[in-house]
């Protein structure tokens, strides 16, 4: 498994509680999104079975931060080879599940 | 291992055990009392008939000899792998045997299991593993599956599994590993008759295997996780 | 209609329980993951593939567990099994109206081999203890992976099984049998055969499932409650009487059907005039036909 970590700042949107979406199956991933005191930051931590896709993860996660602008939020991912499209979908589902908003 | 040799060593005060189609049944004397014996031999696969025969023997004991201790002698290559057994619902026959053993326990019968030769997976999950405690002889084979088949199904390289099996009780077959994980209460080495007598005295209805696994270091999370779920506290890892 | 089969474990729980009532034990944010998978370079799941907790269901107070078939085939490892066992023990402490086990699993998780086997055995013991405490335990089998291995045994240790025709309940999978005995013994690619032998309709007909429902979460809920109420009514614990009746039923099953080559012959022997038509029937029509011919079963 490869572990990746990304940190963002500048977000304003805060959340309450924790939620899990997705399943760790082939071509899929689970996303655990939760409130965490991070001085306003947003952290994304990824454990992935697919090695060497760092730049793609970074791009996907950066886009996610652009869309949601979350603050004091930790996102943890267990990934089993999902495509970037599926990753984006799950990230949005995770944020939606905890905010009630659909983007 | 020849079941008669084992029976002679276990029950020097006497035993009357019959074997029919690899199904063992009968009685023996231990510490001055009569105990019921059920079991299997010749590494027999457990199919619907032999599961049912074992269950019948348990029910007969419960009905005719209330409170009589029961000893389960295990030697099996695992569940029988046939379409016919699946069609007939072998999982139900196995469950039925497990439930009969549980009923006996509830009614005060002490139940001791002994793996004297082989015990694979589904073959002993509703016999030996349903006893109050399961014991093993040192040369017994106890495992879920052979490492090559496990490698094929999990897609983990065989070399990796073999490497891990060296000191990780999770993968390695053998009674020492089940001992460490709490699945086997003890391995009987010398005086089998004394060990059997003690086991019957020690037999108790609570399932202590998760505690044993924690104490012995083979399963460090089973007990803490179950306890945390039960009480709502955090997991107190060892 | 909300497909039970297509739903994830958490979606099934959400669909079965009254909205907002699910109180999860050891939720995923506690990250109680498998200690064994990382050394095999296999991914972990934050809930180790099973969600356990309690909630209300049509006003009834229930404990519930749902296995996630999408993670490691729903197979039972050390943590997964301990969550199930802990939930069952807590049920004895708190005395809910029923315990529901949403089973979708291949059985013992081979990646955790020995730990998984002992875990399944501990779950089996715990199920029986819950029953002895007067609390009905009902199994729901509706996932695409079915319910196999040691958990297929656990299902038949509970007070009742609700199954759908889409799902399967057995011990060894067809591939395992084919590997052991050849394609003549069991052609694992013959889907129709696989479903005849291990699928919901056959299990309902021979008496191994006590309810068969359409692939709908609401239907599973209703049937589970019905079975739980019935079990409470007659007493959930094991009795000598019930096990003797089961002994007779299982003996008769071998006598009557042990010589059958295919389940079609069993269905015919049960008095069904058009056994070939059975797989084609919709759930309600099937149930109506089956109820006139099927084996009753003790649990």
Would you give an account of this structure?
The complex is a heterotrimer of chains A (103), B (238) and C (299). Chain A has 103 residues and is of the alpha+beta class. Chain A has one domain: Ribosomal Protein S5, domain 2, CATH 3.30.230. Chain A has helices at 54-68, 84-99; strands at 2-8, 18-22, 29-35, 42-48, 73-79. The model of chain A has no long low-confidence stretch (mean pLDDT 95). Chain B is of the alpha/beta class and 238 residues long. Chain B has 2 domains: 3-205, Alpha-Beta Complex (2-enoyl-CoA Hydratase, Chain A, domain 1), CATH 3.90.226.10; 208-238, no CATH class. Chain B has 10 helices and 8 strands. Chain B has helices at 3-10, 48-64, 83-88, 90-106, 147-154, 158-165, 175-181, 192-202, 209-215, 222-231; strands at 15-20, 23-30, 33-40, 44-46, 70-79, 111-120, 133-136, 141-143. In chain B, strands 1, 2, 3, 4, 5, 6, 7 and 8 form an 8-stranded mixed sheet that branches. In chain B, helix 2 packs parallel to helix 4 (90-106). Chain B is globular. Chain B starts with a helix and ends in a 7-residue tail after the last helix. By secondary structure, chain C is of the alpha/beta class. Chain C has one domain (9-291): 2-enoyl-CoA Hydratase, Chain A, domain 1 (Alpha-Beta Complex). In chain C, 42% of the residues lie in helices and 13% in strands. Chain C has a 7-stranded mixed sheet, sandwiched between helices. In chain C, helix 2 packs parallel to helix 3 (113-132) and helix 6 (191-198) runs parallel beside helix 7. Chain C is globular and about 55 Å long. Chains in contact: A-C, B-C.
Task: Give a quick precis of the structure.
With 238 residues, chain B is of the alpha/beta class. Chain B contains ten helices and eight strands.
